[in-house]
Design brief:
This protein is of the alpha/beta class. The protein contains ten helices and seven strands. Helix 2 runs parallel beside helix 7 (about 150-165) and helix 8 runs parallel beside helix 10.
Length: about 260
């Protein structure tokens, strides 16, 4: 079970929600279980803060952040948890049953991390591109005849598991890590730089750019890099990109080679 200090290190992120009532229901569930940090990424309705369903949770809605993209919403997080059903998707990250999420999250927060619990739109859930930002995917156990859940209910079930229900010992298949974790925004910087380097080296056709970006995001999260790791790898790829004369948004051009990162 997460204590209050740990709950304050968890962001609930709603991606492109369409119905303000569902946003209000999610905010109410957060207030029910002692979570305060809500971010709404690319909301469909402009007046989502006025949701009437946020009974007892007006403060959660007032303090909620709005982000243009999922990448922006999770920029300060070190551990991103996607949610959804496996009925119509083949995820490429570890699958964590909901009852095992609590111990996994506790371990991440104990090493100084910040986590995001991400929920997708009502109609189709998180997309393949959204999931590329996630370290793990949490599966909510539902009946196969009706695998999808209402957004507000899904938030409530997940937060109940974290706040109120004792969790079993975590299985060994869950990802292991140690030391200070890297921020999501720094992993994205690194992915962009590696992508620039691949393009400059003509690694693959331009048509593969989107697939390469997706795979890079997943791979960097599987590696569980530290901030020091990210700085060193950034330095390596900047030097490689400079040597081959590459150009791109992450390239740093100067009269001499780029400085080493350490």
């Amino acid at each position: 079970m997460l204590n209050q200090a740990q709950r304050d290190c968890l962001d609930v992120v709603l991606v492109s929600p369409r119905n303000p009532l569902n946003i209000g229901a999610a905010a109410r569930a957060m207030a029910n279980f002692g979570f305060a940090h809500l971010t709404v990424a690319s909301p469909y309705a402009p007046h989502w803060r006025e949701a009437k369903s946020a009974v007892g949770a007006p403060e959660v809605l007032r303090q909620a952040l709005e982000a243009a993209t999922l990448a922006e919403a999770i920029a300060d997080c070190t551990f991103v948890i996607g949610t959804g059903t496996l009925t119509h998707r083949k995820p490429q990250q570890p699958i964590v049953p909901l009852p095992e999420l609590g111990p996994l999250l506790e371990r991440e927060l104990a090493r100084g991390g910040r986590a995001a619990l991400v929920f997708g739109p009502e109609k189709h859930g998180l997309t393949r591109e959204d999931l590329a930002f996630c370290h793990v995917l949490v599966e909510i156990p539902t009946d196969p005849l009706q695998p999808s859940m209402n957004l507000g209910q899904a938030v409530a079930v997940c937060l109940y598991e974290l706040a109120c229900r004792p969790a079993p010992p975590i299985a060994q298949r869950a990802p292991q890590s140690a030391g200070e974790p890297a921020l999501s925004r720094d992993l994205e910087r690194l992915a962009i730089l590696i992508e620039d380097t691949m393009a400059a080296a003509r690694y693959s056709p331009a048509a593969m750019q989107k697939a390469n970006r997706h795979d890079l995001r997943l791979m960097l999260r599987r590696l569980l890099l530290s901030p020091h790791d990210v700085r060193r790898i950034l330095g390596l790829f900047r030097r490689v990109l400079w040597q081959i004369g590459g150009k791109g948004p992450a390239a740093q051009h100067s009269q001499g080679p780029p400085p080493d990162e350490s």
